[in-house]
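Appendix C reproduces, verbatim, an entry submitted by the partner laboratory led by Prof. M.T., so that reviewers can inspect both the input and the predicted structure.
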Amino acid sequence: MKKRVIFGVIISIIVLFFLLNSIDYTQSATTIMNFGLLSFLIGVLIYSSSFFFRSLRWQLIVHPIKTISFTTSFYIIFISYFCNSILPARIGDLIRGSLLTLTEDIKFFTSISTVVFDRTLDGVTLALLFCVSLLVTGKDFQLDPKLYFCILLIISLFLILLVIYILDFSAIVKLLSPLQKISPKYSKILIDSILNFHSGGEVLKLGKIAIFKLFIFSICVWTCEASLFYFVLYNIGIVIPISVLFILLAIVNFAIMIPSAPGYIGTFETAFVLVLVLYGANSGLALSGALIVHIIWFFTTIVFGLISMKCLGVSMHQLIDKLKNVQEEK
């Protein structure tokens, strides 16, 4: 875990170094100060609404394994996002799995598989929104070929994960049958691991209604987040088409999947500013928008995360200890 933390911090330092060398800090500071408390609170309300749909979606994902309440799903998700805000390298996602294991007596690997499936749905939904938006914008918005390649790799990864979840387990075993002949021992370990991993997508077997709900919840999650982006940008004087808005949303969220310092510091701002500058926005205003959105993220996840920890009766020290213990026992 320490190597992952160090790597994440180094990534953030590098991207921040390149970003901060080309920004007008005075303009950014003035814009942030003029944003206003009422606008800030509205932003918090908009962002908070996305967690309502996240909680419903994860509750549905976990349901085939064990029925959990909406409040449990809500508390655990907010705690995981709170931990991602103050701890590096997206450790909050691991903490979400360990909390589900400890509160609902579910195997750690199975708990993590539900988190991975939840993140896979995010990635696939963002990929869909990104591709549709890119088709709509056409030649009005051009990305660097290297950036296209990186995004394509990320999208491919999520599609591969989705295919693994969709495939029937017997089909996966058949695909691995040549390996069973070569090395029965390691093939068994691999099959058992995939079986545990595959269990996170059991919700797909519940039928079309469940799949439709997953789709609707996913669209609602990202509509709320897109609304926050648009609200902040509009209030600081940057007006962008809806298609560019979803390109911005997708690239920013793909960027913060890279392990970084606590709260995605650096990767978030760099991706945010990069997309808006490519569209033609002022870099100082773009950084202002990124920082305001990020502050809203921090405030929302920290406040509701602390409340959720209080409701579940856990402390940060306990969370870290429980994560270490669960990983050692898995």
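The longest helix spans residues 108-137. Additional entries are available on request from the coordinating office.
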